[in-house]
Every structure is written in C-alpha cells, then in structure tokens.
Amino acid sequence: MVEFDELMKKAGERMNEARDAVMDLADKAGKKATELYDDAKTRLKIADIQKDINKLYREVGKSAYTANRSGEDVSAVINEKCDEIQRLYGEMEELSKSVAKAKEEAVEEPADGPVETEAVESDEPAEPAEPVADEAPEEE
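The chain above was modelled as a monomer; its predicted structure follows.
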C-alpha cells in the first residue's frame, strides 16, 4: 500500500510539473502574440503616415501650380505643407526606430528560454540502444 501511495504522490508531482510547463508556454505565447500585434499596429501607422505624406505632395504640386497661374509667390503657398511633410517624416522615423528596437530586443531574448531537463528515476533497467543504421553488423 505504501508503494502505491508513493507512486500516486510521484504521479501528482509530475502532473504539477507538466501543468507548470504548459502554463509557462501559454504565457510566453501570449507575450509573443502581443509583440507581433504591437509591431503590426506600428507598421500600419507608418503606412498611414506615408499615405498622408503622398497626399501632401499632391497638394503641394496643386498649390504651386495654382499660385503660379495666379501670379502669387509659390514658396509662400507651399511652405506650410512642406513643414507638415517634415513633421510627418520625423514621426515616421521615430516609429521605424521603435520597430527596429523591438526586433533587436526580440533577437536578444530567446523566445523559449533555456530548456531544463530532469532525469527520470525508474526501477526498471534501461532498454539497450538500437544500432545506428550506418554501422554494419559485425561478421563472425
């Protein structure tokens, strides 16, 4: 009866260790999913800024043309839009830096972390290893 109790206790301990490993893996997967979501969200924001910049370029051209045709000073008309373009480029650069930094941090931290192994105790003798396929059987 004592052996059965010990066996059940060891099985319970192994189940707890397995549960802890699964919980740790799920936590790491959740963190990675959050990182990927944040990265994608930042990349979409960069794409939106680029779209805004392209729109401003078109507006600069249109304003310059209109000002030129009406005899106004072209540079005065487009300076405001050029300043806005510069501001958007700065914002886009900051976002790109944050994406690059996140990638560097992801490379520095291994996703799975160190793998720990534990020897399994058993009362049964170990099974003999199977011969490797490359080895030729010895002839007698």
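Confidence is low (pLDDT under 50) at residues 114-140.
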